[in-house]
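Appendix C reproduces, verbatim, an entry submitted by the partner laboratory led by Prof. M.T., so that reviewers can inspect both the input and the predicted structure.
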Amino acid sequence: MIVATLFFFSNNTHAQYAVTGTVTDQSTGKPLEGAHISTGGQAAPAVTDAMGRFRLEKLKAESLMLRVSFVGFEAAEIAMRLHRDTTLQIALKGSVLLGDEVSIIGTRAQAKFPAAWSSLARKEIRSLNLGKDIPYLIQGLPSTVVTSDAGNGMGYSGISIRGTDLTRINVTINSIPLNEPESQGVWFVDLPDLASSTEDIQVQRGVGTSTNGAGAFGASINFLTSDLHPDPYGELSLSGGSYNTFKSTLKFGTGLMPGRISVDGRFSFLRSDGYIDRAASLLRSYYLSGGYYGSKTTIRLITFSGTERTYQAWEGVPKDSLATHRTFNPAGLHYDSLGKAVYYDGQTDNYRQDHYQVHFSRLLTRGWNINAALHYTKGSGYYENYKQGESFSEYGLANPVIGGDTLTSTDLINRKLMDNDFFGVTFSTRYSRSKRWNLIVGGAWNRYHGRHSGRVIWAQFAAGGTPDRNWYYNTGLKKDLTFYVKGEVNVVRKISLFADLQYRHVSYIMKGSLDDLRMLDQQHTFSFFNPKAGVYYEPSRYHHTFFSFGVANREPSRNNYKDADPWRIPTNETLYDYELGYSFRRENISAGACLYYMDYRNQLVLTGEINNVGEAVMVNVPHSYRTGIEISAGAGFLHDKVRLDLNLTLSRNRIRDFTQYIDTYDADWNYLGQDTLRLGETDISFSPSVNAGAIVTYRPVAGLSLALDAKYISRQFIDNTSARARSLDGYLTSGLTGNYSVATRHFGEVTFTLSVNNLFNRKYVTNAWVYPYYLDGIYAESNGYFPQALIHFLAGVTVRL
């Protein structure tokens, strides 16, 4: 069928023509990536690539009006009548509008930044966005590993880069911190369908450039939300597929109206049952922005929000169930009076997160602009647990006496609540009087106040008949002040030097009781100096090399403090990052490599355990390192109808001298202490030594794209003991994605998308936890594994006006 379809398309292009060309900046001659070329409905619009090139096909021999637009430039209209294939050279003149990009340039890598970074543009995001979480859209980038509690990429999903998880990756949206300051984590389930309002995603590996918010301790992810669209538009997207998955998205924009005002919006609804039993998610979100775009001033007001309700799947599947029932979810399991297994329907996580941003940019002189932003985030939610046989004393309850008998335990339902406020200001100014040098000064001040509490909302038996009571309450107040200075200078025509000095001051106060009734009263203050420097060498037009060295410091998170043994209080970590890179870029071929050595002091590493809310437990180790090489290459063939892109990371991730601590209990579960085992040099958990990706893209005719992708992840250890019994097998998974766009008489463009995931139906596991212990002298362990879905599909249609 596919062959017949392609034959049909090919035979219907003989009497038609193509228009190809490049779009450049009139003042500099540089190509413009992302410029839009429309034909008024005769053909699907085109978007220029990194070299400024575009191609329109299946055009009829008649009068044609091309419209070429790019933010920050005056649109161009070209009238023509086709008689043959035509090639155009289009130079756009800078407009009187101040572009949005100036407001976020301070925290993003630029063309000659001496570090390893990758980006995903709107066109690529749009071709992949059928409802899966953000990590699954960027999993094809080098050194990335993704995982999903629900097994199908919707709900709670995670990503690691160079073995570093999301609690240690700095994430910003329009330069505003997204990491939750106490936990330092990011949960994309709180912002469902963020991809539909994203213009660009940039991933910096290693220390990267100075940014706002949590310390970048292995990578940074920067989101740029929807930019100015000069023309009005409307868009409706519907998609669905396996596991009762469904997504609907409505987008609209006014274009640039008189008075230089623009308004954009999005509303999304998503749901999925998940691959794992009872891993359902129900998600809603919106995005609204309004902006004024003047010749020297830009003001943008942005608000976006997400609401999620997910059934808990963070306990994972017990290891002994993987072979017989790999979708088993024990969350909410209890037994009725007849001994029958039942599940609590309310075993859900519920959270709402509202974001508000105000951005101001002002061009003071031709080479000097200033930027400032105010932000506020409100988060609130809870989750519930059905617990069987809980001791009254664990909840601060008195043992009730019923019928003359004293009860010491009961079945109950507890609810854990979280309420927080996060607000602050960011700023940056850039000064450049020539192409030889520029200077950026910036910083941020942020304040976070979090409130954590618990209630027993039902109990089978309760003292005094009042089961609904407060259980615990604690607060966290965190303040973060950041200041950075960055400079770049071209010392000679081919060599650029880069320096980046950052100062960060953090104060953190915790008060109150925890869910185990321990007191959390603590106060911590940190002052960090994070210098970075590098050199960028461009020996010729197509060859580029760089070397950089950077220092990063990071404070422990709330969970690090909360989960720590009393005799092992965590301390801050330090990273010394060395990067050496080379790249070759020429038209439709590219290649590159980056050697890195990341030397850690007091790195907090995963123990393999999780705490009572499914989050990883970590402990400091004095000396550890990550070293490796990242290789990438891409090439186009057959006039760019076929393209092959590859990446490969080979790494060694080691703790120089690791000591394992194992809890011991007697037969009645009384805690006796810990056994200590010194293991010497071991592997860092969840850090595969081989990480490879490949994608083959075939574009036989205009508007049609077929992509076959593959991802290989080698063995990962669940804890830091290098024990094969506590490791995940390596896996190879693949997928097939097809996109077909067509211009219609009544709609500007209609796009059909089909994505088949885990194409060869592999059984594999991406994540796990394990808690080893001795019970009455016998080794035992609790564990949970996260198997991923077998072959499954998503299909969608998008109508753009």
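Residues 1-14 have pLDDT under 50 and may be disordered. Additional entries are available on request from the coordinating office.
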